[in-house]
Design goal:
The structure is a single chain. The chain is an alpha+beta fold and about 220 residues long. Helix content is about 45%, strand content about 10%. The protein contains six helices and five strands, in the order E-E-H-E-E-H-E-H-H-H-H. It has a five-stranded mixed beta sheet with strand order 3-4-2-1-5, with helices on one face. Helix 1 crosses helix 2, helix 4 runs antiparallel to helix 6 and helix 5 packs antiparallel against helix 6. The chain is flat, with a radius of gyration of 28 Å.
Length: about 220
């Protein structure tokens, strides 16, 4: 029987933490031994890097946000299966129910940002449509929220001057937001019309006024 006064023993390499660094946005894995390092690298797309006191793992900067979450979840599951104790940040776990509308909204905006970062004009047009589409875009939805805020605020505060008061200023900001959403819609149309660049291969066209040389006759 164990002595209740005796401190429990545990091995530090058995613990792995997988989380997102709030400053850089990188997905990091800290802890574990060489076996854990192999699992992180093969199942989660992590790479090893030197740290101040020991090595740590992180996913590549260019990895899409959703792929980061899938890799982090797969690595955590594989580590748990072979006996490691793992902490996986909830926002990285694709197997759990999202803990609130706010987290789902943040993930949606992060995906839009990631898509826009490395896309061609026709895909950028799709991103701008998500942002500014009438009624259902991000900005029109935000405008609706602000309209509700200034309407409720205006009903609860004493009468204020027509110009310069906080409620009036918020209403002016909401009007500007609506106008900017329409401007983004116009820019989306221009981006959608941008022609795709020509493929970087194939012979150059003959110079103007120069006839193509006929093939030499076979002897």
């Amino acid at each position: 029987m164990n002595d209740p006064a005796q401190e429990p023993k545990f091995l530090l390499p058995d613990y792995v933490t997988i989380t997102r660094d709030p400053r850089t946005g990188l997905v990091l894995a800290i802890g574990g031994d060489q076996r854990a390092a192999g699992i992180l690298q093969t199942t989660g797309g992590f790479t090893q890097h030197p740290g101040p006191s020991t090595h740590y793992h992180r996913q590549p900067v260019a990895m899409p946000v959703e792929q980061q979450r899938i890799g982090a979840t797969a690595a955590a599951h594989a580590l748990l299966v072979v006996g490691y104790s793992v902490y996986l940040a909830p926002e990285l776990n694709v197997l759990t129910t999202p803990d609130g509308d706010r987290e789902a909204a943040l993930r949606y905006l992060a995906r839009l940002s990631e898509t826009a970062r490395r896309s061609k004009p026709h895909v950028l047009a799709e991103v701008m449509a998500e942002i500014a589409a009438p009624e259902v875009g991000v900005l029109p939805r935000l405008r609706d929220v602000l309209v509700s805020v200034w309407t409720s605020w205006g009903n609860q505060v004493p009468a204020e001057p027509l110009a310069g008061g906080p409620v009036q200023r918020l209403m002016d900001i909401t009007t500007v937001l609506s106008r900017k959403a329409r401007e983004i819609e116009d820019l989306r149309t221009q981006a959608a019309r941008t022609p795709s660049p020509a493929p970087p291969f194939g012979p150059p066209p003959p110079a103007a006024g120069t006839a193509a040389k006929p093939p030499a006759p076979r002897r």
